[in-house]
Design a protein that fits this description.
Chain lengths: ~70, ~400
């Protein structure tokens, strides 16, 4: 699951000409550490939802990879 | 009496004699609420109701049970049959037309595709439906190809234009490229009417069709890029861009993008805050049309080109705008830039609901070069668009989907 999230984050970073990441740290903040703005976050949720069938932002803000994983594992 | 209708797949041709025979069949019934896959039965029922001076309602073939209920109240209305009684005998084409013309107050009810999901009802009379129909010797032998849905106003207008001139109507709505190319040649279509989306489906054209005399495009924003393609494929055809609406019928025609308001419409049309407004006298009667001080807001955003005489360009339908995080995006603008890319044949931009931003932009791309990548497209778009207007999800497809009206679809 974490590998798939890394792949999604890297697709988005690629398109912003940001360097690919080797791995994700559970504490990584989607905005400050991974560099995603609100448009990127919207794309992130759509890609995560089509992969896992869960809208991670449906009931409020999600900040870190940890929180994303928590929503997906619920 | 000559061909009346062609349904290219499966290649069915019916003649005016077939139509007259159908109308005269002993014990013939017709449906005042018509929903049928057969274009012949659709038109035969419309004509039967017209010559009987009995109101008719027509529905799209693909309406869902819920939509049928919303339109008719009671779905069993579709089973109603009325015995056909001709007020005067019809044995020739002239009898038929005379019978039609005598019914100026006959009413036909149509449903627009309705962007909010529920079809909107619009009622026309014979007079309002045929206001722009032209007859005369110059139409002798004309063959009308229509890419419009025959249950919608534009398709019906082409139909009556063909009927009143004793011409043949070729239904091209919903047909594939190859069938359309074949039909243009096989049935020697001289007049072609369709949406820009229909014409885009044909690009690149497989050959030149020099027998086409007139092409008209309507229902969506027309562009000079399409016009250039059409000129190449149809070198002898006069190309017209038509502004029409279900509520008012055909109003303006232009050679390019700029519509000039003729003097007879001068006091019936105005542009306020960039929106095109029409006086109520131009409208069909419909209980669902909302007027403010006698003016109807078309919801069409236009750009004034000159004040006197008034002329304008169509920009977009207001309802097409997509809200992305509070920013409104015109999908037509994004599609136009995508289509400018040399490796893109056609594109469609549409929203996908999203909990972060309300909507995010998605697009479908029909590519003309298999090497084209999502990255190429993002770079191309970023050169001329703000970030929020650049689609985030790209799908490469073999065919671009269109709506019931034959316009580009804005739903996922």
């Amino acid at each position: 699951m974490k590998e798939k999230l890394l792949e999604i984050v890297n697709i988005i970073r690629d398109n912003k000409q940001l360097a690919r990441l080797e791995n994700l740290n559970p504490k990584d903040d989607l905005r400050t550490d991974l560099g995603l703005d609100s448009l990127d976050l919207a794309e992130f949720t759509v890609r995560v939802e089509s992969e896992f069938g869960v809208d991670v932002f449906s009931d409020g803000l999600v900040n870190s990879i940890d929180e994303v994983l928590f929503k997906l594992e619920k | 009496m000559g061909p009346f209708l062609v349904e290219p797949s499966p290649g069915k041709v019916t003649t005016y004699s077939d139509l007259v025979k159908w109308l005269n069949a002993p014990g013939q019934f017709f449906s005042p609420f018509v929903k049928t896959e057969s274009v012949f039965l659709l038109f035969a029922n419309v004509i039967a109701s017209l010559v009987s001076d009995y109101p008719v309602t027509i529905l799209d073939t693909d309406f869902s049970p819920a939509e049928i209920k919303a339109c008719l109240g009671e779905p069993s209305a579709l089973d109603v049959k009325v015995k056909l009684r001709l007020s005067r005998p019809i044995s020739t084409f002239e009898d038929l037309i005379e019978s039609c013309r005598a019914k100026q107050n006959w009413r036909i009810t149509l449903f627009t595709s309705g962007t909010a999901g529920i079809p909107k009802k619009v009622e026309h009379t014979f007079a309002s439906l045929t206001r722009e129909v032209r007859t005369g010797a110059k139409y002798e032998g004309a063959v009308w190809g229509s890419g419009y849905n025959p249950t919608h106003i534009a398709g019906l207008q082409v139909f009556f234009q063909a009927l009143m001139n004793h011409n043949c109507y070729v239904n091209l709505f919903g047909e594939d490229r190859e069938v359309i190319f074949d039909a243009l040649e096989r049935y020697q279509i001289t007049h072609l009417s369709a949406t820009p989306s229909f014409y885009r489906l044909l690009i690149p054209f497989n050959r030149v069709y020099s027998h086409l005399q007139r092409l008209s495009s309507g229902g969506e924003k027309f562009s000079l890029a399409i016009k250039n393609h059409l000129h190449e494929a149809f070198p002898n055809a006069k190309i017209l861009n038509i502004y029409a609406s279900t509520e008012a019928g055909t109003l303006f025609a232009a050679r390019g993008e700029v519509f000039e308001v003729k003097s007879r419409f001068r006091n019936l049309v105005k542009i306020e805050n960039g929106r095109l407004l029409l006086a109520d006298s131009l409208l069909a009667s419909s209980s669902e049309i909302v007027l403010a001080d006698g003016w109807y807001d078309t919801g069409d955003v236009v750009e004034v080109v000159s004040e006197d005489p008034l002329s304008f360009k169509f920009v977009r339908r207001e309802s097409e705008l997509i809200n992305v995080g509070g920013n409104r995006v015109d999908p037509n603008e994004v599609e136009a830039i995508l289509r400018n890319h040399p490796q893109v044949r056609n594109a469609r931009v549409f929203p996908k609901a999203n909990s972060v931003l309300g909507n995010i932009l998605c697009c479908e791309i029909l590519k003309s070069d298999e090497h084209l990548t999502e990255k190429d497209l993002r770079e191309h778009l970023s050169k001329s668009l703000q970030n929020f207007k650049v689609p985030r999800i790209y799908t490469f497809v073999d065919q671009i989907s269109s709506s019931r009206t034959g316009k580009i679809s804005r739903s996922k």
